[in-house]
Amino acid sequence: MLRDLDLTIEPGERVLLAGASGAGKSTLLRGLAGLLLTADVGELSGRVTVDGEEPHEHPGRVALLLQDPTASLVAERIGRDVAFGLENLSTPREQIWPQVEEALAAVDLAYPLDHPTHALSGGEMQRLALAGALVMQPGVLLLDEPTSMLDPELAADVRAAVVDVVRRRGSTLVVVEHRIGPWVDLVDRVVVLGDGGRLVADGEPSRVLAENARSLAAQGIWVPGEPDPDPVDLDSDLVAPHTPASGPVVEATGIVVRHTSRLGGGGRRTTLALDGIDQRLDAGRLLAVTGRSGAGKSTLVGVLAGLLKPTAGQVCGAGPDKPLWSWRSRVLAGHLAWVPQQPEHGVVTTTVRDEVLTAARAVGRAQWAERRADRLLDALGVGHLAAANPYQVSGGEQRRVMIAAALAHGPAALLLDEPTVGQDRLTWAAVTGAAASARDAGAAVAVATHDLLAVSRVADDRTRLSRGRRT
């Protein structure tokens, strides 16, 4: 939601847009791109112009990187996906492919042009979407959390690539990030949105932060120099397993995963995602799975959740005496809960509260889960959204809704893929606190993450992957 917002951005200005989760940052970017009438539901008043005209009147002038990079996918191959915008502008063919290769190199996505888009990790998908925006060489570049799924080293490279492009082109940049520190020295201006999408601060970065540091931190903004927040303890009766467990809840040995993709002309390409991994999840322990983008983190968490059958190796759980991936879905859901990297992929209902109770109803624990569903939503800062459609809340709110849904039915193991993406200081404390509290209450917890602060605060064990191997 945005309310009574007036904002003027000068040509060539580089603006960092900050605010708490749900403040309306993504909505503002969609408004600047001219998408509110086509991609959102609600009431709209006011007007947005770019160089005095409606944003849609000159295709290619404004490029938007969405918070969910999968929403930008349009093709099966990475080369065609990046070329799509240029093709729609009728760019001569001989000019398209050099520009595509330059954009992919700028975001360090070093795959052949015919590499399948479905074989990319979440972080790689984010870089692909960014390449699709950069290749347009737009006059206005709008980026919604462009580095949220990237490891620190790669995130720094991507920021440098973005700044290089806008400097060379003289483009206007508006970027949304929760972790604003790395961007502060790269932008001319910081704009902060508060409750209801109101403008609460606007100006030169050092001045805005110096004058408002404590109040901004209290609103949830990751202000450089302010002490890091502590995870919030949740009552054990909100997060404890329905059936207490002990020892290994999931045990994987010799895991190998190969992804085979079809190429044009009938060929195939095989990618080794995991190679000889042994891993166990123990009750009362929290495992952090780390590594660079594309290292195999999501694949390992998927295997441990029983959602992916490995090419070789065994995965067993504290339940039926057969491989975890062959358990009946309701039996699996009763033991384990998984939150995907793109949380909307797990949404199956039309209200937040129904979403939180879906698994509990499926496994026969609805009455038991009712006692903690609303309190879980409140603890994760989304209680006011109980009647909302899960598809129509912000990305950070949606992720917290799905974490509440994963906890409500009391699984013995909780598996979370990048749970702190899109979170402000306050909601980060709630999310990491929920994971740690579930661990303390006896659940086995696994978290795939680039968030090294979360790792340092809550992890008992750590597995670092590189190219599918443990390092």
Low-confidence stretches: none
Largest sheet: 6 strands, mixed
The total beta strand count reads 15
Distance between the termini: 45 Å
What's the CATH topology name of the largest domain? Rossmann fold
> What's the number of structural domains?
2
Q: What Rg, in angstroms, do the CA atoms define?
A: 22 Å
Instruction: Work out the strand percent.
Output: 15-25%
Q: CATH homologous superfamily of the largest domain - what is it?
A: P-loop containing nucleotide triphosphate hydrolases
Strand order of the largest sheet: 2-3-4-1-5-6
- CATH architectural label of the largest domain: 3-Layer(aba) Sandwich
What structural class do the secondary elements suggest? alpha/beta
CATH class of the largest domain: Alpha Beta
Mean pLDDT score, rounded? 92
Query: What fraction, in percent, of the residue positions are helical?
Result: 25-40%
Please state the overall shape, judged from the principal axes of the Cα atoms. Answer: globular
User: How many distinct helices?
Assistant: 16
Please provide a written account of the structure.
The protein is α/β, with parallel strands linked by helices. The protein folds into 2 domains: about 15-220, Rossmann fold, CATH 3.40.50; about 235-250 and about 285-310 and about 320-470, P-loop containing nucleotide triphosphate hydrolases (Rossmann fold, 3-Layer(aba) Sandwich). About 35% of the residues lie in helices and about 20% in strands. The chain is built from 16 helices and 15 strands. The protein has helices at about 25-30, 35-40, 80-90, 95-105, 120-135, 150-170, 180-185, 205-220, 235-240, 295-305, 330-335, 350-360, 365-380, 395-410, 425-440, 450-460, and strands spanning about 15-20, 60-65, 140-145, 170-175, 190-195, 200-205, 250-260, 270-280, 285-290, 310-315, 335-340, 415, 445-450, 460-465, 470. The strands form 3 sheets. A 6-stranded mixed sheet has the order 2-3-4-1-5-6, sandwiched between helices. Strands 11-12-13-9-14-15 form a 6-stranded mixed sheet, with helices on both faces. It has a 3-stranded antiparallel sheet with strand order 8-7-10, covered by helices on one side. α12 (about 350-360) runs antiparallel to α13, α12 runs parallel beside α14 and α14 (about 395-410) packs parallel to α15 (about 425-440). The chain is globular. The relative contact order is 0.13.
